[in-house]
Every structure is written in structure tokens, then in C-alpha cells.
Amino acid sequence: SELLPPAAVMNQTQVTEFLILGFSEIPQLEKLFFPAFLLLYMVALSGNLLIMVVIGSSPALHTPMYFFLVSLAVVDILCTCTILPKLLDSMVADRTISYGGCMLQLFFFTWSLGAELLLFSAMAYDRYVAICWPLRYSTLMDPRACRLLAVAVWTVSLANTGVHTGLLLRLPFCHSNVVQHFFCEIPPLLKLSCAPTRLNEAMAFAADIILAVGNFSVIILSYVRIIVSVLRIRSAAGKRRAFSTCSSHLLVVTLYYSTVTYTYIRPASRYSLDKDKVVSVIYTSVAPSLNPLIYSLRNTDVKAALRKLLC
């Protein structure tokens, strides 16, 4: 297939639908997982919607930090609604997904993945400016700057997913149609191709270096500067408040980046799909469920706005 032109390679594509293997080939075990993933889906959906409603209805929370938190909630909803409904359906009913449906799932998941990584950097930059440049905060993070950052996040992540999806659409899938995963992700789909995937692997590796490692480095540098500035604060209460606004973000970032980097930074030959299923659960299901809990339970302003809304 290496000697064939792209058109001839595409003509060899025989797969019209994929079979999602899921976590187990034993239906009884799949049904045991169903309540857990249904709970994660409900928590992620309701929690992130609640965050959006609370922040939207409280004028005191109309600040850059909460603007990005709402954007993060939108990304988490996009991720969970892309992955979990089909996963729940495959556990109790139909495990097949059409070729087009699989590519759409890959597109929107990769879009949300890139947007989340970039949003973490935008949130770290916001905290850096707020703590290290408090007098210039209102100027540097005015509404126009926040909108430009949000547009950049969605545009860059859209371009990223467009490249990956476009490269994957050129691959023929004639070896098998069994996806050894619980959703359509790049690593397991590359395993099924009967054409060379070196370009796809190289682009996935480059995107991981830029989006994951690159953004993580920006976040670490921002927080090094933040820690240095916080240590200069004489008031113990001031230090606690400064660290409290950053600790939630650091906790979420560490959980998300470690799992995403583990999945995408290796070549396809080294993927262990059984282990990767467990890791993928963290950034597709667990993280979107925990994000609203972490940011609300550890944030006094959000809790106060929530109490006011409920009352």
C-alpha cells in the first residue's frame, strides 16, 4: 500500500462501520460498569451546567477567572456528550458505530481535548497576572483580552483536530473493524489501518509536545512565578487566599496532563490498549466529573453564589 496513490488507497477501504469492543467481551461485566458510567455522566453534565448557571447568574463572578471556568465547563460537556452516551448504549445494546459516526466522535473528542489543554494555560496566565501584576490586572485581562484568548483556544484546537481527522480519513481500514477501546480514539484506530501510519504518529506526537508538554511548561513557569510572589506576602491570610485560588487548578492540571501525555506521546507499537482504556477513563469521564466539584467545593465565592442561588 505504500506504493499506491492516496486515491487508490482510499478505494481499498472496506470498513463501513466499527465494532466498539468496550471494557469486556462479557455482557454481564459490561452491565456492571453501566451504573458507574451513568453516574459519571450525570455528575459531569449536571455539575458543569450548574457551574455555568451559578456563574452566569452572579454578577460578582463575572471576572476573567470565572469566564475561563465557564469555558472549561463547556469543554467538559462537549467531551462527555461525545463519549459517554455512545459508551452507555454499547454496554446494553448496540456496540457498532458507523464509519462517519466514528470519525465525528474522534473529531469532537480531539477538539475538546485540545481546547481543555489550552484553557489550562489561559487559566494559569490569568492567575499569574492576578497575583504577580495586581495593579495591571484589569488592563491586561479586560473583556476584550479574555474573548481573544477564548477565540484562540477554540481556533487552535479546531485546527489541531482538523489535521488529525483529515489524516485519519485518508487511511484504509481493511484489517479489522474491531476497535479495542470504548470509543474512537487515534491510537486504537491506527492499529486497524493497513497503510503506513508514520505521518499520523508523527503529527500526534508533535501535537502532544506542543499542546501537552508545551502548555504544561507554560503552566509550571507561571506557577513558579506565582509561588515566588505569594511567598513575599506578609499576611498569612493573604498567602492562604492566593494559594487557594491556584490549588484547584493545579490539581486538575496534574490529573489531566499526566494521563493525556501517557496516552499520546508514545509510538503506536508501544500502545497497551487494555491499560490505555483505564487511563482514558480518567480524562474522558472522571476529570469532567471532578472539575466542577473541585472548583466549587474549594472556592468560597462559588459556594456563596450557589447558596444564594438555591435560596
TrEMBL record:
Q: Which UniProt keywords apply?
A: Cell membrane, G-protein coupled receptor, Membrane, Olfaction, Receptor, Sensory transduction, Transducer, Transmembrane, Transmembrane helix
Q: Gene3D superfamilies recorded for this chain?
A: Rhodopsin 7-helix transmembrane proteins
What is the membrane topology here? Multi-pass membrane protein
Q: Which residues cross the membrane?
A: 32-54, 66-85, 97-125, 145-163, 209-231
| A UniProt-annotated Pfam family | 7tm_4
Q: Where in the cell is it found?
A: Cell membrane
UniProt main location, coarse: membrane
What does UniProt give as GO cellular component? Answer: plasma membrane
Designated name of the protein: Olfactory receptor 13G1
Native species: Ailuropoda melanoleuca
